[in-house]
Known about the structure:
- The structure is a single chain.
- The chain is of the alpha/beta class.
- The chain is about 40% helix and about 15% strand.
- The protein is built from 13 helices and twelve strands.
- It has helices at about 15-30, 45-70, 80-90, 135-150, 175-180, 230-245, 285-305, 325-335, 360-365, 385-390, 395-415, 420-430, 435-440, and strands at about 95-100, 100-110, 115-120, 160-165, 190, 195, 205-215, 255-260, 270-280, 310-315, 370, 370-375.
- A six-stranded mixed β-sheet has the order 1-2-4-3-5-11. Strands 8-9-7-10 form a four-stranded antiparallel β-sheet, covered by helices on one side. A two-stranded parallel ribbon has the order 6-12.
- The N and C termini lie far apart (about 55 Å).
Amino acid sequence: MTAPHHASPSQPDEAYLRAIVADTADAVAAAEPLGSPHQGAPEEIRTEVSGLIDDRAQDLVTLSQDLHAHPEEGFAETRSVRALAELLQNHGHQATVGVGGLDTALSATVGTGGPHIALLAEYDALPGIGHGCGHNIICATAAGGFLGAAAVAERLGGRVSLFGTPAEEGGGGKETMARAGVFDDVDAVLMLHPFSHDIAMHPFLGRRQLEMVFHGVAAHASAQPFMGRNALDAAVAAYQGVAALRQHLPGTDRVHGVFTDGGARPNVVPDRAALLFYLRSGRPETLRDLAERMTAIARGAAELTGCGVELTWDEQPPYLPIRFNSALAGRWAVNQEGCGRKPLPTGIVPEFLTGSTDLGNLSYRMPAIHPMLAVSEPTVALHTKEFAAAAGSPAGDRAVVDGALGLALTAADYLADAKLREAVAEEFAAAGGALDVPAFFA
């Protein structure tokens, strides 16, 4: 007789989520937006850029909606990058597709010499969810930012580039392009990300991937279990070791993993078992420390069970956390106020509501910003079908136009204002300057 059971899981209590939303709403209402002491571009330049974005608004929204309707996963964004290149061509700019060793990467540049600022487009989607991270909006805003800044770049004595960066969702396209030298002569980079709030600076965590493969000795689990070495026991011990580790981690750290192999049959002692973990942390140094502790856990679990262990790190490049540049972010915030938005400083929206991005890797090579642009209700999380719907909604379309204007004006500010550039560079240097990213985890 089959025992009664519950087929469905219990649902999480939403009380904590509701409390977070209420507290955040109060904090947002009381907060002052991030400001800037710098003048930026002259008013006539700002007026010209604003008019140009207005003229291009429908084309940008059309691009966003086209990408939203035809999602493509990382390194396979052939249709998406072609649509971006065609938009640029329609507005008089030639783009090169296939740069930095990646078939779906793109580059376009206007101007020669002088300071060089770049806008970054992402256009990869998620399997089964589509644009649940809103990369259609990221692409369209970057395209608009480039078109707006390109119209004035040479008059301002500088250069502006647009780079299409594939496979942000786990593939690390920006890191691959950086190692190929694509960003070597770029002074600063700009991009944005759709979200549930308008935030000028929001922390994103560094991320590494770790596969643990335990090797044991197979044996008959009933007749001769004493002749086996159980790889699944080792994997379970490692998983439990990680669970024990969590209570001793900084509040910014995250470790989450799954079993990818646990043996084939109950009557055979498993001679192979495997786990895949994501490790996240708010600082490069704490991410490196977390990696060392995970290594110790894996080796301890192997020793405990008499198994061997093989560790494979970062099949794709690791992601560093984002390093802020408040001087550059301040100009972004000022440039969004005209759109009726109030980009917040750090610490207003809970900072644990975050993930990871390969933009972090560039932010340790050069000054960078990655502001958040509200397109959804506060309770909607990234990487969900609900956020995918928001990315294709009228709120998403409005964000395309607002974001394109903000990026274009911020790029123009950087090229026009020498004191702003000096402040951006000084802040970057004070934070530690450029980091040798490939060597950091070596």
